[in-house]
Every structure is written in C-alpha cells, then in structure tokens.
Design a protein that fits this description.
Layout lengths: L3 H9 L5 E6 L4 H10 L14 H8 L2 E5 L2 H11 L6 E6 L6
Parallel strand pairs: 1-3, 2-3
Length: 97
C-alpha cells in the first residue's frame, strides 16, 4: 500500500512490469521485533488488507494470485509480456515451496 500510486503511473506509461506483493496479512518485521523485545506480545501487526486482485482491477492493470513457486515463475514471466503492470500477489499463508 505504500506504492499504490506508482501502479497508476506505471500503467499510464505503459510499463509491463511485475509488481510482486508478498502478502502475509501482517507487518512481519515489526512482529519479529515484538517477539524478541516484548516476549511475543503483539500490538497492531495484524493487517486487514484490501482484496489486491480487485485493487488491480480498479487500476485497470493485470493481476495474478499465486500459491507456489511454479505459479510465481509463470506470473512473473507473463507480466513482462504485457504493456501494463501486473500485480503478482503471493499468498504466503497458502504458499507451498
């Protein structure tokens, strides 16, 4: 969500690039610090994210939701063949190596 405006700029400029979003529905780096420094007590790290596939649609760009390495490879490869950006959402809660 820090760079949503860049999605529109990339679309406007016709940049066919993958935007890989690793979605774990959490501020993981902050959670790890809280694990170390606060005996595992967590404050404000769980996220209620938007539907990133619908967000991509609202920007008028392509999107893929992937849950494994093969899907990620395929989605990134296809993104380079487009003339608009592609949001490639990696669902880390369902991801299989």
């Amino acid at each position: 969500m820090f760079t949503a405006q860049e999605v529109q700029t990339a679309k406007q400029e016709g940049l066919g690039l993958p935007i890989v979003l690793f979605n774990d529905n959490c501020y993981s780096a902050i959670k790890r610090v809280q694990d170390r420094q606060c005996e595992g007590r967590h404050v404000a790290v769980k996220l209620d994210n938007p539907d990133f596939q619908l967000l991509a649609k609202s920007f008028g760009v392509a999107s893929d939701l992937v849950v494994d390495v093969d899907g990620l490879k395929q989605a990134v490869g296809q993104a380079f063949d487009r003339d608009v950006p592609t949001i490639v959402e990696v669902d880390l809660e369902a991801f299989k190596m």
